[in-house]
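As promised in the previous annual report, we have extended the structural survey to additional targets. Below is the entry for Oxidoreductase.
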Amino acid sequence: MDSTQLTVRIVRKATEALDIVSLELAPVDGQTLPSFSAGSHIDVEVQPGLIRQYSLCNDPTEAHRYLIGVLRDPASRGGSVAVHDALVEGQILRISAPRNHFALVPAKRSVLLAGGIGVTPILCMAERLARTGADFEMHYCARAAERAAFVERIRTSGFADRVHFHYDDGDAAQKLDLPAVLDAAGADAHLYVCGPGGFIDFVTKGAAARQWASDRVHFEYFAGQKVDTSADGSFEVKLASSGKCVSVAPTKSVVAALREAGVNIEVSCEQGVCGTCLTRVLEGEPDHRDNYLTDEEKAANNQFLPCCSRARGKLLVLDL
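The corresponding structure token record, generated without further manual editing, is:
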């Protein structure tokens, strides 16, 4: 978890949709919480040693609370199930200060696309854009109406007329027409998308096919990408400070191998999403498997995420 730790209390836990709950977190001392910008997330210690990242979805001007929404994930590694089944109102939690890898940038127009639980940072963005009088539209896609969270909040908001709902099980007329949305956005518009990996890939590939420049397309994954590991081999990492070499077996991550050798790297998501373990690479070529670095940053090959990424050759020299 981030070195800046906050202690909060769950003052409200509510069901927002099928398999989605929200947690309202307030400081235990009654003081204000650190400010945050739209698109920010926090680390939450769901259980001792079990840390997960969740996007803040309340109005960024609020200083008395943080609000997160959590989907019960059938492929959960323990985090979402614990939030749904174990956490209760009144419970004390440790969290990090907010961090933002999915920030809004100034633009003539913003197009917000949310898939499922990806509505959490997107809704926060809508709140911010509406408050500042910016030009935007929001599209919220869900498998069905009962799986769409925060719908009443959106419908009673001052920007309700800018939000379009799309349900997979609805009639064809209401489904997302991505090419039409992209073509109508304008040459200076910026696109923001969050949701399941397949949804993000669908939107980003659709934007690329319509010649949207990559710097106008912003996205954030909630989970790591699936990678074929059947051909993974062993390699070594060398610590620049001491010259020590550590072997990384085909079935182990760099983080795990270093930990066994007595070298601890701070980690959080361990899926290549949050960037907590970002490490400089001094020599060698990383095999990037994260959803955190941009394509340009990956091409530079001077940093990687050792929780998930590996080496293309036999050696990586790390700035450790």
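Residues 110-221 form a domain with the Rossmann fold fold (CATH 3.40.50.80). The mean pLDDT is 92. These points will be discussed at the next consortium meeting with the crystallography subgroup.
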